[in-house]
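Changelog-linked ticket: S-adenosyl-L-homocysteine example.
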Amino acid sequence: MAERSQLVLKQGKEQSLNRYHPWVFSGAVKGVKGPELIEGDIVEVLDSEEKFLALGHYIIGSIAVRVFSFKNETIDQSFWQNKIEQAYNLRKASGLVDDESTNAYRLVHGEGDYLPGLIIDYYNGTAVVQMHTVGMYLIRDTISKALQAVLGDDLVSIFNKSEGTMPYKADVEPVNGYIFGKSSEKVALENGLKFKVDWERGQKTGFFVDQRENRSLIEHYSKNRDVLNMFCYTGGFSFYAMRGGANTVHSVDSSERAIEITKDNVELNFPGDKRHEAYAMDAFKYMNKTKGKYDLIILDPPAFAKHINVVKNALQGYRRLNAKALEQIRSGGILFTFSCSQVISKEQFRTMVFSAAARAGRKVRILQQLTQPADHPVDIYHPEGEYLKGLVVYVE
Ligand code: SAH
């Protein structure tokens, strides 16, 4: 085994690692020992007395190391394969792998699977892999072999979609494409509903599997309601609402392409159903003209805050959006509202919804509090991993 570089921390900076938090910030680093460190290298992290703490991938940035092991062990094919296998076993334990009505799930969720920098979504035979660190990108062949070994016949192809996810200025030029097999089968099943997943051109890995259970919940609230699915992307919430017996369902997204896919997906599940209409339009522009039109509104916007510095502005954005929906919704209406910003806490989100209600002059009560499903596990030592927050509120 090649000699590894060692990164020595300043005194006192080992505390978070002793609590198994998987990040080392660059400000915590005192110095480097051993071979010259290159981005993507596996590095040993030592405390100020040079006692071993952890192993991880070295990154040039405010996070200097993302840790994947707290043991001083050999990192080889079987190490990574074992991690992927553990991840697979967790999905099996949560009933997702053997669920006949669902074949789309997240197989690897970064820190939540002790694999920081790696996201893998599985869609009916295809694993879509997204690397967020150079270290993970460099071992893509290893990851590919591990996936083949763990998934066996359930794996037809692996699509690498890391073009837009590598750190800024990283010295690699990833190209999106298949790294194993090839697949033209792009329809996956979720709770018995069909979805076209465009991993080659769509956002993220092509589909938002994290809303599976919340979409399913919509079904139970939809009967005889007039539904607005705002920020619909590929239309997920819409056809659950249709299956739940909604009166009408309107899907809105600013992206023309998203609206096209939404229409295709509705057609796949409810051919010719006149209850559904879809519009490519900006959220605020659309909602300005919807006074009293809907009694079930879903707001699932993109992350308004990607960084801690912009939390305040993001909260204002969320407040404005929620206030608008709360002003417009019919009385007795139900609002499903979400934030997928990692840096916004559950408390901040809830306070924001309450102040939006006050601004809109509506009385609201929380019916349910929502989060991400079991295939997006939260490492208890890395609470930042709990990124999806949602509330179902009843509006008088
Ligand atoms: N609810 C979806 C996921 C939403 S992702 C699902 O269940 O799959 C967020 C979506 O918001 C994206 O599709 C993006 O195109 C859309 N979006 C971003 N800004 C917007 C705006 N100003 N108005 C309307 N849609 C917008």
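Closing comment: Example verified and attached. The pocket of S-adenosyl-L-homocysteine is lined by residues 208, 211, 231-234, 236-237, 253-255, 258, 282-283, 300-302 (CB under 6 Å). The mean pLDDT is 96.
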